[in-house]
Amino acid sequence: MHILVTNDDGPPSNQSSPYIHSFVKTLQSAGHIVSVILPHQQRSWISKAHFASQVVKPTYFRPGTLHQDDGTTHAKPRLRSSNKSNPSSSQGKSQDGEEDEEWVLVNSTPATAAQLGLFHFFQDRGPVDLVVSGPNYGRNTTSLFSLSSGTIGGAMEAAVCRTRAIALSYAFFSRDHDPKIIAGASRMSVKLIEHLMARWDEGVDLYSVNVPLVQGVEGKKVMYTYALQNYWKSGSSFTEVDAVDEEEDPEEMEMEIREREEAGGRQGGGGGEEEKGEGEKRRTRHKHRHFKWTPHFADVYHSVETSEPGNDGWAVKEGLVSVTPLKSNFMHVQGLQGELKL
After folding, report:
1. C-alpha–C-alpha distance, residues 135 and 191, integer Å
2. Are 337 and 165 spatial neighbours (Cβ–Cβ below 8 Å)?
3. Euclidean distance between CA atoms 228 and 313, whole angstroms
4. Residue 9 phi, psi dihedral angles, 5° rounding
5. Which helix (H) or strand (E) holds 116?
6. pLDDT given for residue 245 in this prediction
7. What does the DSSP 8-state code read for residue 169?
8. How far apart are CA 163 and CA 259, in angstroms?
9. Which DSSP string do the residues of 311-332 spell out, in sequence order?
10. How large is the average pLDDT for residues 95-109?
11. Which of 198, 197, 155, 131 is nearest to 326 (CA)?
12. 117 vs 2, 22, 255, CA distance in Å?
């Protein structure tokens, strides 16, 4: 198969994108043609967004050693020799004789990466049979995570382009990235992807797959699940912070989110603030402050703990592999139809 891979975590990084390189290498070892196009930096929590007014610019990433942050990014693609025998192979030779595996990075979103990968890059490799978005650094279970997921957004974009798609997420229980456990999850993922492609249900636009990152995952049961409907119950998902001019690094911000077991409570703040001007105090209409995304993950975990078996969050909690069949739409509520008389 020709498999297009994107994600929302960006190029390989032990800090923010620790699974993508292992997964790509496992796909290649299984004999698949693998084309890779990723956001150039962390783009989690962005769903299926596009930056409508932005000109998208690619750079080119050459993977380094597995689990080592020694890949390199370049402004221009590497020159390839003219006597290349197989344009569709996952690797060729550059003019200096080195392997020229090269991924595309774009200064945009997972959905944009999927679009560009399908229609503007890798055309010499033939039609794309499947788009895999992931593996995400963390689970994408329940509606709260899924609706915001850039990983699912990338797969959803492929689905609305009438291409089969799978959103793949690794549910970690420890940030100790054991290469053996990651390798097992990659093998399990490839085996499952091949199974789903061979038996694709005609009613499915995309699958959301969650693989628990645990020892012996290749022996775990695989369950069809539904996405658990849940809601934020603890108030705002933002915390007030002091107003500063500097922008934080998105990878560091995402790492802080992952490391936080539970966000702090909602902070106060309502009226304006006092400012000195021309020797007197005056109140502004709004209190000037900045806000930081700090979702209350406890809401998600509580909803899973109190749910009935069969949903995606329950499956991952039980150490099972979750496969959720999805349509690329917002489902309407049954029973409301016809004219509304005011």
Report:
1. 14
2. no
3. 7
4. -100, -10
5. helix 110-119
6. 60
7. E
8. 35
9. BHHHHHHTT-EEEEEE-SS-PP
10. 78
11. 155
12. 12, 20, 27
